Amino acid sequence: MIDACAQIEPDPEPPRSERVLVIIPAFNEEGSIASVIEEVRLLGARFVPVVIDDGSSDATRARAIGCGARVVSLPMNLGIGGAVQTGIQVAWREGYGFCCQVDGDGQHVAAELIGLIEVMDRGGHNIVIGSRFVDGAGGDQSTAMRRLGSRIISRTISLAFGGASVSDPTSGLRLIDREAIGLFAREYPHDYPEPISVSIAIRQGLTVVDVPVSMRAREHGRSSIGGVTNALYMFRVICYILLARLRKPACGPGAPLQPQKDES
Question: For residue 28, what is the DSSP state?
Fold first, then answer.
């Protein structure tokens, strides 16, 4: 992690259609939010951080504003799915070409976004997922049982969608293009959002690819979702994946969006 709120020399800003809105969902992450913001800023002007304060009761919002970050404050805790969709709606409404998720707890290494955007820029994919489980991944801090749960979910997606390969379906470190932004601005699961959103995207005909990444152990705050070792979690996720397989694909992107309270 880097020094919080470091002074960074700004780069020339690229067009909005080429920029990446970096969504930082945060619920009571006062201990890590400043460092996460500055990690994103070190990537350059193409990457624009926005903190989605998910009803925090601590100093998360104040510390983000103190670093000069844009903050969207939710009136109550919606959970990770609601917070991320709020950021996606901002990206859709404001014309960003790409957006990605970097969790406010500091687990995600923002520098890994460079590898994700390089894959995206080469074309051919709508969603690029940072995976802890493909060859070349630099490290994984999850438990053995959590890894087993992720493999079960991955296998379920593969069986449901004709061999689709998603090695790390519970990874929140992911980059999406304008087409996926339009889809998720309209429809994004609030429960178990990572694996279910991937399933919705595949059913819609979007393409998904894995890129090896490293992740850190969580240092501050608490996880916003239960572990994949929970039997009820696994049962529900598998059911939602199967329902996604049975759903009729939507006709196209676009969504009626409501304004959010925006602070800076």
Answer: S
Does residue 21 have a pLDDT over 60?
yes
The tally of CA atoms less than 13 A away on the side-chain side of residue 75 is 3
Q: Is 108 helix (H, G, I), strand (E, B) or coil?
A: strand
Tokens (6 digits) for 10? 């700004």
User: Which tokens go with 95?
Assistant: 């014309």
Q: Which single residue is written with the structure tokens 């500091």?
A: 106
Pull the structure tokens for residue 72: 């969207």
Phi, psi for residue 148 in degrees, rounded to 5: -65, -45
Report, as an integer, the average pLDDT of 64-79. 97
User: In whole angstroms, what separates CA 219 from the centre of its chain?
Assistant: 19
Decide: 171 and 210 in contact? Cβ < 8 Å: no
Cα–Cα distance measured from residue 172 to residue 84, given in angstroms and rounded to the nearest whole number: 10
What is the pTM for the complete model shown?
A: 0.86
Domains contained in the chain, CATH given = 16-251 (3.90.550.10)
Is residue 175 within 8 Å of 104, Cβ to Cβ? no
Burial class (CB in 10 A: 0-12, 13-18, 19+), 243: middle
Diameter of the chain measured on Cα atoms: 50
